[in-house]
Amino acid sequence: SGAVAGYFPFLREFFLLFSLPLTSLRTHPGLRIHEYLYFQVLSPGDIRYIFTATPAKDFGGVFNTRYDQIHLVPADPPEACGELNNGVFIQDQIALVERGGCSFLSKTRVIQEHGGRAVIIADNAYDNDSFYIEMIQDSTRRTADIPALFLLGRDGYMIRRSLEQHGLPWAVISIPVNVTSIPTYEMMQPPWTFW
């Protein structure tokens, strides 16, 4: 099952979940390091898929709330290394940011300072459809309180491309999604990503 779980993140989480003793399920309801977190795009409809992300390793918060409908707002500028042109739209929402230009922690802090609930940082390699980067602290000893997630470059690119094609300022998403409760035949994975 290890080889299969490595190729299929949702199966990996399923195996992890059911290999834990019941007491640890009760005492550790949140995600742990190296686990996957899932979110679903609700609109626009052409990217209505369940996406896989990985939480930052040693900084940022966790999702204590499930957001059934929240905006995923692409940051402007995309790298979010300083003041944002669309910061007002990120307040109380989730930002989609692009890797590069500054540290993962710096990006997370910029989104936090603009009132974002969380940040999803997509790889800047648009052809990356399988390799997850481990997001770690930089050397500044700063902290961030909001959740920070890493998204594959292909997924981030396809979300941004869809929004541009539709002339939309944001997507509507549900996060986190518990994939273990979704029947396999209903799992809508992005067709460009091998799960």
UniProtKB/TrEMBL annotation:
GO CC, alphabetical: extracellular region
Gene3D superfamilies for this protein: 3.50.30.30
Pfam family, one: PA
Signal peptide segment: 1-25
Keyword Glycoprotein: yes
Protein name: Protease-associated domain-containing protein 1
Compartment(s) where it occurs, according to its Swiss-Prot or TrEMBL record: Secreted
